[in-house]
Amino acid sequence: MRNYSKLILGCVVGSTLAGCSWMIDLPDVVDKTATTAGRSGKGGGQSGGNVGGSSGGTSGANGGVTGGTTSSGGGGGGGASASGGVVTAGAGTGAGGGSGGGTGSDNSAGSHSAGTVNASGGGDGHGNVAGTGNVSANGGAAGTAANGGASTGGMPQAGVAGTAGVSGTTSTGGTPATGCTIGPTIYSSGQKNPGNDCTSCQPAISTSAWATLTDGTSCGSVMGKTCHSGVCKTGCVIGLNYYDTGTVNPNNPCLTCQSSISATAWSSVPTSRCVQAIAAGESHTCAVINGAAKCWGANPHGELGANSAAAYSVSLLQVQGLESGVTAISSGDYSSCAVVNGSAQCWGYNHLGQLGNNSTVSSPIPVQVQNLTSGITGIAVSYGRGCANFGTDVGCWGDRYLGNNGTAGSLVPVQVQGIPIGSSVTAIVAGGSSCAIVNGGAKCWGSGSNGMLGNGSTDNVLIATDVTGLNAGVTAISAGIGSHVCAVVNGSAQCWGDNMYRELGAGSTATYSALPLQVQGLSSGVTAIAAGSAFSCAIVNGAVQCWGNNMNYMLGDGTYTSRTAPVQVQGLTANATAVTAGGDHACAIVNGSAYCWGANSYGELGDGTTTAGKVPVLVKLP
Predict the structure, then answer these.
(1) Does residue 376 contact residue 343 with C-beta atoms inside 8 Å?
(2) Residue 524: exposed, middle, or buried by beta-carbon count in 10 A (0-12, 13-18, 19+)?
(3) In this prediction, what percent of the chain has a pLDDT beyond 70?
């Protein structure tokens, strides 16, 4: 008689037999393919083992004794994948028993348990073939093979290890997909994290960790927010650097971060170190710095306006009473003027009434130009003469040829004739002659010496007269301390007047020209221009170029050689916004800072020394 083993009911977890009967309720995303075990075999009377988590087979028809021992077999558990759920591996079949259950489908997520295998029934049953280990879902670890179940008359066999999952993908319903997850939700590559605008789905990096966006990337629904170290902030950026609201631009003291305007554009909010305007005189310089007027250099007639008796100053001095509200400034030979809260004020030498206060007494502090207490938009001063722009007309005072159709001078402003009523006056300058931009054209008046009126003649003119050929398109104009004038016309540079030192830049060997000449190489891209004593400078596509006399390094090219055509000022190749030319020195504003070059006998370069500047030096602010 054969000895039949007693059937042991239970579940195997790892190598431990646990007293349980598993009925697994699979999630919707899992294909429930396991089937009930087959019916009993003939003659043996053995009951079939559990297959794929289903119930066991029915006992044999001949009433045989239930025999065999069920045991777990098949593959090891699959690795965990991205989302929950369990799947059961299929099992092999035993001799005499029904066919095994179907293989469990890959699950998009969750852990895979080992499949069971039915043991053979009676004594002649064959050993079970161990079930194949589960293939782990993408993203999971490899399953581990479990030993086949023990059986009477059968030999257990080892299960086959599961296949490792692939990182970076998830799947739904058994179908792999690329993306990131938050809970049950899958996000595709490139989508922003709904909880953090500064991270986006980069599944090649990880299925669970989101990648941080580059600093400076716009984020959030409010204009002005950018990503910084993975956080959406309000502020401004320069390259990859982030700056909080209110921060001064490190490259330009005239700009401050106003993130409500733009995340990348800085607002023109001046600071205490912002140079807004600059004017070079004969041997001194003045500037508007954050609304205040400051001057430095020669001071024999009080042209620095600081109420100082010093002959000169290498340091910037505050013009007395002009600590704020200054919008324009001009430096002449030995006097200076400014527009302060819409009024005209002047200081320095006054022997010809150039201060406009109905006096010829010089003043080391600003005095009010008579009758010009409001509405002034521009101002200019030269040797013995001053002029102011009212927006629609012009008034001048001081020495002769004031444009009022007379030759006498005046200690107070008189109206310039030849400017139509209701005109738009956008600029005013004073030098050897006086000029203005009126309705987009250039007009000049006064001395016609060396043809500096540009009307084809050397005769003096008593009222404002058109410059030949420049009836429109004039955007900037400058009259030198000497006897020449330059203008920007439709983006090109043109000059006329004295040419003894080739200050017209036209390549001409003539000593003067009574008509405008095209400056060589500057037919486009010119935005600003300045005429000095015997040299000229211009801003061309943001770079500063100069030409003419260079005996005191006023061309800024590092040489002592005069030039008949423009040369590049060393170091000032971009971002220049203003340029000015004086007696033997010049200055420019670049990124809100001032640079000067040329003669420096009285500290007019503002670098704290009296050493000439062959190339530009930075003006040292207080």
Answers:
(1) yes
(2) exposed
(3) 69
